[in-house]
Structure formats: structure tokens, C-alpha cells
């Protein structure tokens, strides 16, 4: 059975490919889950329209991510932490801590999108990378100070 893939499917093909699969796989999984259309002229036109709409949506997301990047790079975060002897931190400053500080500033960013080389375990100024989109990364400064 010939189908048009709507999304990339590992081991089968990329979005837009017309491939031949077993009828049961197409009827019971790919089509009901929305991963593919049956390969007809009408569905090919529907896919082309969908492709244009996705490109416009992607362009809009990248534009918004660019604006957010500029805003994020202007701010610096201050994490006040408890320290012990020799200014050693109790615990560490992690991506979750940075996510919470960003929420206080009005940016709701998932901690999984914040990339640290390693958890911060000492006082000072550090940089963290925030992955807004696949091609857009923002660098933010994190000041770690005594509480």
C-alpha cells in the first residue's frame, strides 16, 4: 500500500516521501495516528498545503525565539545560596534553579532546555545556554552569591 509520510519515521522515511508499506501497518497504525496519508492525488495536495502552513508556522516560531533570545541575553540572574567554610556551596546551582529564577523574571522556560557544562558548585559568575529552538540558543549570565 502506498502512503505519503506526514512526519519523519525512523527506518521508513522522511516527511513527504511516498513509500510502500504493508496494508495493516498503514491502516492500523500510520494513518490513524496521523503519521501518513494514503497516496492519492487529493491527499498529495492536502500534504503540500500542510507543508506550506508548517513552514510559515516554523518561521513565526524562529522569529519569536529570536526576540526572546535578545531579551534573555540582556538579563543576568542572581542565585543567593548558603555557603560553608572556604565559600563552598551546600548543594549546587542546577538548571532547575536557573529555570526557577527565570520564572521570577517572567520567562517560563523548561529546565531541560537550560544547558550547563556541569552543576555550579562555587561562587562566581557563570554562563548558561538556553536552547529556545533547534537553531536559536541564548547565553545568560548567572551570578552565584552568598545568602
Overview of the structural elements:
- The protein has 2 domains: 2-62, Ribosomal protein L9, N-terminal domain (Ribosomal Protein L9, domain 1, 3-Layer(aba) Sandwich); 66-146, Ribosomal Protein L9, domain 2, CATH 3.10.430.
- Helix content is 35%, strand content 31%.
- The chain is built from 3 helices and 9 strands.
- The termini are far apart.
- It is elongated and about 70 Å long.
Structural key phrases:
3 helices; alpha+beta; 2 domains; three-stranded antiparallel sheet; 147 residues; Ribosomal Protein L9, domain 2; elongated
Radius of gyration: 23 Å
CATH architecture of the largest domain: Roll
Q: In whole angstroms, how far apart are the ends?
A: 66 Å
Low-confidence residue ranges: none
CATH superfamily of the largest domain: Ribosomal protein L9, C-terminal domain
What is the overall shape? elongated
Largest sheet: 4 strands, mixed
Strand order of the largest sheet: 4-9-8-6
Query: What is the SS-derived class?
Result: alpha+beta
CATH topology-level fold name of the largest domain: Ribosomal Protein L9, domain 2
Please give the number of β-strands: 9
Q: According to CATH, what is the class of the largest domain? A: Alpha Beta
Assess the beta-strand content as a share of residues: 25-35%
State the helical fraction.
25-40%
Domain module count: 2
User: If you average the pLDDT, what whole number results?
Assistant: 91
SSE topology string: EEHEHEEHEEEE
Amino acid at each position: 500500500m502506498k502512503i505519503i509520510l506526514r512526519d519523519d519515521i525512523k527506518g521508513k522515511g522522511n516527511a513527504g516521501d511516498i513509500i510502500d508499506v504493508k496494508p495493516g501497518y498503514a491502516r492500523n497504525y500510520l494513518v490513524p495516528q496521523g503519521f501518513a496519508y494514503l497516496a492519492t492525488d487529493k491527499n498529495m495536495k492536502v500534504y503540500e498545503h500542510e507543508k506550506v502552513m508548517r513552514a510559515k508556522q516554523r518561521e513565526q516560531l524562529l522569529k519569536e525565539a529570536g526576540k526572546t533570545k535578545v531579551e534573555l541575553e540582556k538579563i543576568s540572574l542572581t542565585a543567593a545560596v548558603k555557603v560553608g567554610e572556604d565559600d563552598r556551596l551546600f548543594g549546587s546551582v542546577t538548571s532547575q534553579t536557573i529555570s526557577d529564577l527565570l520564572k521570577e523574571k517572567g520567562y517560563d522556560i523548561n529546565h531541560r532546555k537550560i544547558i550547563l557544562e556541569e552543576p555550579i558548585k562555587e561562587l562566581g559568575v557563570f554562563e548558561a545556554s538556553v536552547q529556545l529552538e533547534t537553531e536559536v540558543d541564548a547565553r545568560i549570565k548567572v551570578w552565584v552569591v552568598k545568602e
